[in-house]
TrEMBL record:
Residues 1-43 are annotated as: Disordered. Residues 1-15, 25-35 have a biased composition (Basic and acidic residues). Pfam families: Ndr (PF03096). The gene is SF21_7. InterPro entries: AB_hydrolase_fold, NDRG. This is Pollen-specific protein SF21. Belongs to the NDRG family. Signal peptide: none annotated.
Amino acid sequence: ERERESRGGGKERTEKAKRRRKQRGKGEGILERPGLRAMGESGESVSIDMETIPFGGKERVVETSRGPVSVFVCGDPEKPAMITYPDVALNYMSCFQGLFFCPDADSLLLQNFCIYHITAPGHELGAGTIPPDVPSLTVDDLADQVAEVLDFFEIKQVICLGALAGAYILTLFAMKYRERAVGLILVSPLCRVPSWTEWLYNKVMLSLLYFYGMCGVLKQFLLLRYFSQEVQCGIEGTKSDTIQACRRLLDDRQSSNVIRFLKAINRRCDITEGLKELQCKTLIFVGESSPFYPDAIHMNETMDSKSTVLVEVLKISS
């Protein structure tokens, strides 16, 4: 009997916890589609109902001259706009869930901004394979596509938040459309051509994607790009919930779509000269063990010191 009561009490506590998460910030937050899972406040993996969209937020497919792009809009459109762009093989959920599931940051961002999560073509949740006859986009095409998204939503100026490859795309956008970017928040940004190490690393990943798809070895390569060894191993040597959640989200990716984005990034140009002329406020975050640490330092040293701040974070990767 006590065992039944214990199970019943545990179920009741679980239901209360779910209600608290649902009610937090009046439903504010970024939610996943059914069947996927995200990190909860306590660190456990929890299912989230995509039918309950905060602030009337929803996913829009914007048709641009360079093809359709998925944009998840969250917040009050009357407030200042912030756009996000994730790294290769990620979408807004898998890339920024740590930020947007943090109660304080979540509440602060959604109270002050309308957030437009732009996803690289074919990287949205549940995306199908992009037809092979559709031309692959360059990094310049992707930056121009961002501008067309802003035109669609009639947005004149934005703050940009990008990670790794996404940081490069948004920096390039800010260079090409200076009057539209009022601020940059960049996480482990890229700004130079790939080093020989990165170029070879990307070539190996492209080969794995082509021949084996989103296989276990490839996912490990990507995890090394995203996370430090400490995060991957967890506190007691076990795989952390964050890593496990990321692995599951990577399973949703179509390998041919990832190939397109990775090829574009592997063919990127050096934008050092353009950085010298950027005047918008820029905040750069980089982990001390990030493979792109040298690029972040170079970017900080190149840009105007009056408008650029570098934050180095210890014991983490990208």
